Amino acid sequence: MTQSHWVFFNFKNKVMQKLKGYFKREKGVISGIASTETPDRDGESIKQDGWDLKNFLNNPVIMASHKYSEFPIGRATGLAIVDSKLKFRMVLSKATQTARDASALIKEGILNSFSVGFIPRTRDEKDSKIISKAELLEISLVSVPANPEAIITAKKFKNNELAKDLIKTSSELRKKKDGKAGSGRNKVDVDVKLLKKITGHLQELCSDVNRKDGVKK
Q1: Does the reported pTM lie above 0.90?
Q2: Amino acid 38: pLDDT
């Protein structure tokens, strides 16, 4: 094995554990916008700097279509108001059929919208359609949102597949290093192809992790 391959293997061994941790941590995590100041289909607008999030943060539930009589389907994390938008990350549960159905619909690109359940506390004196202060109760996955801007902005399912592919490829490379598969020049040719595959996927992973989407972890 050439010196460049040894350098690569040393680097690979250091990053693989991080990738495995990333795979477990990010699985099923979805980024989205819960609310904006754009008037909804009822003509109402919520001032984003007027959100009271205290009670919600103690019980950050994601519901299915505001059905309070049913159990939540997930939880919200990383809630933050960025550029007059209430952004968050959603972690779906696997405990109920409703949650599993929601996950499948999101993966297929069919379910893509959110809606907020809230209590209006204060309205603008000049325009009652503007809610200046409101308490957030819950965030729901819905088929048709009141606010068309309340949508999923990123899904981590694709990145999970990339991480899984990296881990699988790492195992293949290790077998070749130990002489368990291939030999001579053909082995080196295959290693180079796998190296290109890994570095390409790694670049995509790093680009996504470093992308500033305004959501705090």
Answers
A1: no
A2: 96
